């Protein structure tokens, strides 16, 4: 029987609290169903950040509170509660109204807040900072001691206590996997041990995991870790999903992967990996807003024209290259990975030399960077179609949703989009895509 208690609420929950000024002016309550969160209700905070949220709950269990950004804090709720909370990006503190068994939920949330922040939350907050690996290890050792003591108290205390025991184990795995993901270059090879991995294999097969906050993120981290250790490509979703034992777990994983995508072509790759398996109604519904968000980048549509300045001061437009397959390299003068790609692009351009193909180098920045752009052109002996576009906030950067570089695109002879997010020239797939477009 599921640990999750799905009960009809008999009395509304009241949550009063204060939102830290930098986090926003609304508070949102999300339900969690099979690892997928859905907005349930929203209230406006006062000028001073005070709010009162009232809701009749569809179930007793874990929910998420958020001010609308990337940060969402888990909170255990049951019908009739009257809670007082203090909300910030860093943590959610329950300051009053917690009694009985729910005190354990609040205690664990407080104890685990620091490790949670240093493992992953810091990455979602402007200016957030983590700690060095040895400091994080110390935090996790202390947290493990607290976890062991609390789990001992919860033995034999019923289904609600078992749900918290599961969360305690899941949180420790989540924090460690998240820290690995964000600090992979800094940690020791045995940061996650074989014993840890054996524990994770059992933990991430547990059906009730999907009742917990951030379950889908946990599954992605777990799968990423297993896949990386076995050398499985990032977009080989079929092999990655094989690490998960049930369809609900796989659906939660797929949902989270879809949430993190930026381009429709990547979404299509994900959907293709799902094969002919029937998706639950809940997942189908959850994917609709993701599809709508990515619709701007559907392939086959006409490429939006853009224009930039060449080193000699003349201008060049994308439309000037109509009739040729165009490979676009979007970069910036301050971007070290972009500059590392230059030799690979030059090599690829030489290998694929054809009257039907051209490469277009688009440097995006502000006009004061123009001198450095020209210096880099000379330093790396760049030639061909080189343009500088002096805005991140209008025109090309906005039309093509350029929020990071390097970025690579392919446009066919008729000016239609073949790829908004092509592989880097270090990957053979880019050459394959270009040759296919030339056919």
Automatic annotation (TrEMBL):
Q: Which GO terms describe its biological process?
A: cytochrome complex assembly
Q: According to the lineage, what is the superkingdom?
A: Bacteria
Does the record's keyword annotation contain Coiled coil?
A: no
**One Pfam family for this entry, by name?**
Redoxin
Q: Which residues does the UniProt record annotate as the domain Thioredoxin?
A: 297-439
Question: Which positions carry the signal peptide feature in this UniProt record?
Answer: none
Task: Provide the Gene Ontology terms for cellular component.
Answer: cell envelope
InterPro entries reported in the protein's UniProt record? Redoxin (IPR013740), Thioredoxin-like_sf (IPR036249), Thioredoxin_domain (IPR013766), Thioredoxin_ResA/DsbE_sf (IPR050553)
Q: Major location, coarse class?
A: other
Q: Which molecular function term from Gene Ontology is one that the record holds?
A: oxidoreductase activity
Coiled-coil annotated residue ranges, if any: none
Which UniProt keyword terms apply here?
Cytochrome c-type biogenesis, Disulfide bond, Redox-active center
Q: Where in the cell is it found?
A: Cell envelope
**PANTHER family of this UniProt entry?**
THIOL:DISULFIDE INTERCHANGE PROTEIN DSBE
Q: What is this protein called?
A: Thioredoxin domain-containing protein
């Amino acid at each position: 029987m599921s640990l999750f208690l799905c009960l009809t609420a008999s009395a509304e929950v009241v949550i009063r609290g204060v939102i830290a000024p930098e986090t926003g002016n609304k508070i949102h309550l999300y339900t969690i169903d099979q690892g997928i969160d859905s907005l349930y209700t929203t209230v406006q905070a006062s000028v001073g950040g005070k709010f009162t949220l009232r809701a009749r709950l569809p179930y007793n269990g874990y929910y998420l509170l958020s001010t609308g950004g990337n940060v969402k804090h888990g909170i255990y709720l049951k019908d009739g509660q009257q809670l007082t909370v203090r909300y910030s990006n860093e943590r959610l503190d329950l300051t009053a109204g917690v009694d009985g068994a729910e005190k354990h939920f609040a205690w664990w949330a407080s104890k685990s807040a620091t490790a949670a922040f240093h493992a992953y939350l810091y990455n979602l907050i402007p200016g957030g900072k983590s700690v060095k690996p040895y400091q994080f290890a110390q935090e996790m050792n202390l947290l493990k001691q607290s976890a062991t003591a609390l789990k001992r108290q919860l033995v034999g205390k019923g289904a609600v206590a078992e749900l918290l025991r599961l969360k305690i184990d899941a949180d420790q795995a989540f924090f460690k996997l998240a820290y690995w993901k964000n600090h992979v270059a800094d940690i020791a090879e045995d940061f996650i041990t074989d014993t840890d991995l054996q524990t994770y294999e059992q933990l991430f097969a547990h059906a009730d995991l999907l009742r917990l906050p951030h379950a889908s993120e946990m599954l992605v981290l777990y799968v990423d870790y297993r896949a990386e250790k076995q050398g499985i490509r990032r977009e080989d979703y079929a092999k990655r999903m094989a690490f998960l034992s049930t369809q609900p777990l796989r659906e939660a994983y797929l949902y989270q992967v879809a949430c993190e995508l930026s381009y429709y072509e990547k979404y299509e790759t994900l959907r293709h990996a799902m094969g002919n398996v029937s998706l639950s109604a809940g997942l189908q519904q959850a994917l609709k807003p993701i599809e709508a968000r990515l619709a701007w980048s559907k392939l086959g549509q006409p490429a939006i024209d853009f224009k930039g300045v060449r080193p000699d001061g003349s201008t060049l437009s994308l439309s000037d290259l109509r009739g040729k397959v165009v490979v676009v390299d979007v970069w910036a003068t301050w971007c070290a990975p972009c500059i590392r790609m230059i030799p690979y692009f030059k090599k690829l351009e030489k290998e694929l030399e054809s009257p039907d193909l051209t490469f277009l180098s688009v440097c995006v920045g502000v006009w004061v960077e123009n001198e450095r752009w020209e210096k880099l052109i000379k330093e790396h002996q760049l030639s061909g179609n080189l343009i500088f576009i002096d805005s991140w906030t209008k025109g090309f950067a906005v039309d093509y949703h350029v929020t990071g570089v390097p970025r690579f695109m392919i446009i066919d002879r008729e000016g239609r989009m073949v790829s908004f997010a092509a592989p880097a020239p270090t990957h053979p797939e880019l050459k394959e895509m270009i040759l296919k477009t030339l056919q």
